[in-house]
Amino acid sequence: MLAHRLLRKTPSNSATLAPSRLRSPVALPTWRPASYARYVSTVRQQSTSTAAAAATAGSPASEEQQGELLTHSYVKGDTSVPLCEDTIGDFWNRQIDRYGDRLGLVVKQEKNLHWSYRTFGEKVDALARGLHRSGFRKGDRLGYRTKELFQAMNLVGCKGLVTTPGLRSSNHMSMLLEIMPELAHQKANELQIDSLPDLRQLIIVDNGVQVPELGSLKSWTRYEDLLDEDTFRTGLVQDPLQAVAPTLHNNDIVNLQFTSGTTGLPKGVSLSHRNILNNGIQIGDNMRLTEQDIVCIPVPLFHCFGLVLSSLAAMTHGSAMVFPYEGFNAEATLRAVSEERCTVLHGVPTMFIEEMNHPQLRQFDLSSLRTGIAAGSPVPIATMQDLFKKMNMSEITICYGMTETSPVSFQSRTTDSIEDRCNTVGTIMPHLEAKVVDPVTGETLPVGGSGEICTRGYSVMKGGYWNSKKQTDEVVDAEGWMHTGDTGVMDARGYLRIDGRIKDMISRGGEKIHPVEVENCIFEMDGVEVVTVVGVPDARLGELTCAFVSSKRGYDIDLDTVVKHCRGKISHYKVPSYVIKIEADDIPKTPSGKIQKVILRQRAKEILGL
């Protein structure tokens, strides 16, 4: 909320709820906050009735609700509910008016802090005013390298840098001094760093960790000194936030979000208020979030998963946000869910697997859980079944997208069958279009054909890649279609199955192999904890399939057992030629939890002597 609050307008007496998705059109009122709130309340009741009917009849509910069956792999999302045209600050301001006394934020680590929406807003305002007083203006970039400043919802840079000097996992000051030795002899607010020429200010959060390097430095500003909570309460001085607000627009870039870097170097994606606010609204609608929900967020805030799918989805529905720990910790997450009675839990599959394999799992009361999001990689059916049985998450949803699309383009519904939630990523989001095309000709494929997934609509990155028009033009075509680089198959109902990244596809003697299919097959074996499949070079066939397998305690899975299991279940040429045993903790992952196959390919070549 930090950068968003710099952009917050003066309080409004009107209140609004996030719009809900409808499958059938309704008469729309004029866009006014008061009437819109009443309208959305009616919409939610209709949407709940539709979902209940779907649950009774099975999912998908019926052809009448789903529309006519498709012949080609092109879908367009529902447009009967208009997009929100607010800035994030405007929307946030109304949520404070509506839910001010309700629980808004919980931070479990160390402080075990509990804030209402109103207190949360006051704290964010104080930080925004302090930054304004320090010289930050619209268009400046503020970078965050901290897990303590939970009210900072962005990772951007770089006129200023906020950091926590020491955490359990790292010493940030040592790293900063190594890459910016000039810090040792410069003054606060007057930084001149050769490697970061725009950087002027370093803000340090004191979280009680003793860091010797800080003692002799004068180049930093204390976070507590930056806050401005009292100056404008007297009314004698105009609040600078009121002067900033009229200059802001929902198409302004509010977030420079960096990609995960699973297939290459991370790229800065320029996202607007309109991009990520609407995506957060729609994601929360699909989970049926309300002000009664408590969302546990163990995923990182520097990733779209933490920023949009978690924080914005919760905020736009008046739900409380719970942060269990400075980084992912399975036990801390389970404890937070149990103690705070969380109803929603997010994670990538490897996080959920670690939580369910925790030796003290049964000691935690997870009965309050209802829904959540699994994203980042496919969820095997066995894992989904365990989430239902062990963690009570019968309404968990699946999301698909990418940073460049704000990020979610497809999402399953809470009433979708377990097969649809495992084998597909659901259906298209409102106000978006998607198609599956032949990667060579660009032609839209018939349903059932495998090709590249392309998406178009409000969610495509407003500003493209930061300072890189060439890279932007390589992925967004002249008609506005985002070429995702992912391959998938759309069925006649509009449900999308992800096959994998084009770059990850294995070519064995001319035959194309999608790693996901092989991974799902191996994961069905008893004793498999984590599996990931990559291609390795072969002089005769071009590439062969190699599986990295982590076994549960008490199991020993090798090539022979994998081959025996896979034969007859998948085509013979897809059966792995190599199996490499690996501990789950040794599998390289991005900070957001995605497996880095680029590193595993190189590791396999070294291990196998290829």
From TrEMBL:
Gene Ontology biological process terms, A to Z: fatty acid metabolic process
UniProt superkingdom: Eukaryota
Entry annotated with the keyword Ligase: yes
Domain AMP-binding enzyme C-terminal: 517-594
Domain AMP-dependent synthetase/ligase: 94-463
Pfam family, one: AMP-binding_C
InterPro entries: AMP-bd_C (IPR025110), AMP-bd_C_sf (IPR045851), AMP-binding_CS (IPR020845), AMP-dep_synth/lig_dom (IPR000873), ANL_N_sf (IPR042099)
Keyword Ligase: yes
Keywords: Ligase
Any one GO molecular-function label of the UniProt entry: medium-chain fatty acid-CoA ligase activity
Alphabetical list of PROSITE patterns matching this protein: AMP_BINDING (PS00455)
SUPFAM superfamilies cross-referenced by the UniProt entry: Acetyl-CoA synthetase-like (SSF56801)
Gene3D superfamilies in UniProt: 3.30.300.30, N-terminal domain of ligase-like
Family note: Belongs to the ATP-dependent AMP-binding enzyme family.
Descriptive protein name: Fatty-acid-CoA ligase
